[in-house]
Amino acid sequence: MVIKLLIAGGAAVAALGSSAALAQTGGATGSYAAGAINAGQLSQAEQILQPASYTDAADPARLINIATVYARTQRKAEARAALQRVQALPAERLDLANGTSYSSHDLAKVMLARLDGR
Predict the structure, then answer these.
(1) Which of 106, 58, 61 is nearest to 85 (CA)?
(2) Core-most of 10, 18, 33, 84, by most CB within 10 Å?
(3) Pairing between strand 93-96 and 101-103?
(4) Pairing relationship of beta strands 2-5 and 93-96 according to DSSP bridges
(5) Strand 2-5, strand 21-24: pairing
(6) DSSP state, 91?
(7) Rounded distance between C-alpha atoms, residue 33 and residue 50, angstroms
């Protein structure tokens, strides 16, 4: 799974880049709404990212992106819940657009720390 990362803050984040995690893959949701998120079309992104099935609700890339939308729309509790869901799932390696790879758990941990102001 290829991910384009924009997370800011923390040690892992220094290696990752900017300020939110945006997963990009194919499939039913195309780029997992990364284009809409980048364009600031958060309502559209949220509609794309809403899980259509239990399988979707267990997709770390989708959950990371919906957490990004929630955080950017000041819904920290919902963002936190999505990231905690990522941590409750088995860890997946996510390949970044820059060729590096990180655990879905590590990404969720960094994003949770950002939500908590760390």
Answers:
(1) 58
(2) 33
(3) antiparallel
(4) parallel
(5) antiparallel
(6) P
(7) 10
Are 45 and 37 within 8 A, CB to CB?
yes
**Tens-level pLDDT at each residue, the chain (118 residues):** 544 444 433 333 333 333 345 554 444 444 567 778 878 888 888 888 876 666 667 888 888 889 989 999 999 999 999 999 999 999 998 765 566 788 999 999 999 999 988 7
Distance CA 60, CA 1 (A): 10
Give burial (CB, 10 Å; 0-12/13-18/19+) of 113: middle
Domain ranges, residue 96: 2-115
Count: domains in the chain: 1
Burial of 21 per CB tally in 10 Å (0-12, 13-18, 19+): buried
Q: Which residues contact 118 (CB under 8 A, 6 or more apart)?
A: 9, 10
Tokens of 39: 């364009």
